[in-house]
Each structure stands twice: as C-alpha cells, then as structure tokens.
Amino acid sequence: MIISHKYRFIFIKTHKTAGSSVETMLSQLCAPNDIVSTMDPPAQDHEPRNWIGSSPLDKLYAKYERMRKLIHKDSVFLNKHYYQHMGGARIKQLCGDEIWNSYYKFCFDRNPWDKVVSFYWWKMRGKAEKTPFSEWLRIKKLPLDHQLYCFGDEVAVDFVGCYETLSQDLQKVLEHIGIENPPELPQVKTGIRKDKAHFSSAYDEADREFVAQLFAREIELLGYDFEGKSQPTAWIKEP
Questions:
Q1: Which of 12, 64, 222, 226 has its CA 20 to 30 A from that of 144?
Q2: Of all helices (H) and strands (E), which one includes residue 142?
Q3: Would you say 170 and 25 are in contact if contact means Cβ atoms under 8 Å apart?
Q4: Could you give the residue ranges of the DSSP H alpha helices within the chain?
Q5: Strands 159-162 and 150-151, sheet pairing
Q6: Cα 27 → chain centroid
C-alpha cells in the first residue's frame, strides 16, 4: 500500500489484481517522505520507505522476509506500521482522519471466479503435489478484498477499478491525482499460473455457487458474471 503526501493519494493493494505492478510503478513517483509498504517477495524497482518504526525489532522485521513470516504483522512487540494488503480501516487508524478524508483513495478488484483460480495457482507455486482445486477452495482463506476497501457495507474509497480494464482505469486515476507521463507499468509476479484454460473450466456447479455467495459484494458492485462475458464497470464515488 502507498500513502503519497506528494500527490495526496492512498493506494490499497488488493489480491491478484496486478497490485504489485501498480505499486511498483507508483513507488517510483513517490517522494522521500511518502509511505510505501514492503512487498513480499520483493520486486525490482520497488523501494519501501517510512512504513515501520526504528526499534531493533522493527529494523530486523523490515530487513528480513523470514521475520515477516514468523512474526504476525499486528504483533504487540512491533511499532504500528503499514503493510501490503492492509485494509482501509487500519490505514485510517494510523494515518488519521485528516489525511484519510482529504486524500484520493483507490484500489482495483477482479472477477472473483478468475481471481480465486489465480490465487490458487499462486498458493500452489513450487509445490510438487498440488491440492485439488475443489478441496483447496473450502479449506483456505480466500481474498475477500471488499473487506479492504469497505467499512461494513459502505465503500470507503473514491475509486474501485477493474483488473479487466486496468489500463484505462489506472489512467483515470493518474489523471485525477495529477501524474503525467508515468513510467511503464511493469510485469511483477506474473507467469505463475500454468493452466491457461479459461477460469470457468476449474469449477463445477457447487464450486461456482460457493464463490458466488462469498464474493456477492464484489459481484454486485462491479457487475461481474461467471462467464466473464459482461463488461465490468469501475465504481466511482459520487461527488
């Protein structure tokens, strides 16, 4: 996630929505005093800054990815800090009402059925034996990203773009926050998914309905359907 005081925006990083690519691009434009959280695994050209305190444990936590896996991100032994996939409610708590209410807040989401398949392949990376998709679906915590950008039932950000229309939606955001001639959007954390079949082929009827019920908020908000035939539409806060 990013809080840019230079451009007065807050970027909330969701799961499997090219968030690492967007954050890497935006981080190159940030000022030295802006906040850019760490990214695991690290990405080239992504430079975290100002996201954690300076205690000895904070420094170790910031330096070593293994420490971040061993110590819970909300451990009482760490100073309050920012981290990837941090929810808006927690960000607001740390940055304060003035910044939260006055900065432009945005994120991106994705067709849930497609996102879950992509998330599955990300979790299965490097494993010789892969848990069958239908079994994994019901035992793992799935990326319900509306919990990151909503407060209860209300959308708490100004813009929710769509992964499927990322280029034009990102361009709208950049124009709004006053960024001209941004660097090219990099390809970060790609090439993980080995099965290139349409995501719908991974589902039986029960799995399809299971995801539909879990992600009902995202489906309603952005207009997704299982076949991916309809064009999703970005959600924009009314003036």
A1: 64
A2: none
A3: no
A4: 19-27, 56-63, 65-70, 88-95, 97-102, 112-124, 133-137, 146-149, 166-177, 205-214, 216-222
A5: unpaired
A6: 15
Question: Does the pTM of the predicted model rise above 0.70?
Answer: yes
Of the candidates 43, 55, 106, 45, which has an alpha carbon nearest to the alpha carbon of residue 81?
55
Residue 87 burial by Cβ neighbours in a 10 Å radius (0-12, 13-18, 19+): middle
Q: Which two tokens stand for residue 113?
A: 């059925």
- Give alpha helix (H) positions in 35-132: 56-63, 65-70, 88-95, 97-102, 112-124
Q: The tokens of 37 are what?
A: 């959280």
Q: Rounded CA gap, 178 and 188, in Å? A: 24
Q: Tokens 């005081």 appear where? A: 5
Average pLDDT over every residue of 178-186: 90
Q: How many residues would you count in the chain?
A: 239
pLDDT band at 52 (very low <50, low <70, confident <90, very high): very high
Tokens 């005093």, located at residue: 33
Q: CA Rg, the chain, in Å?
A: 18
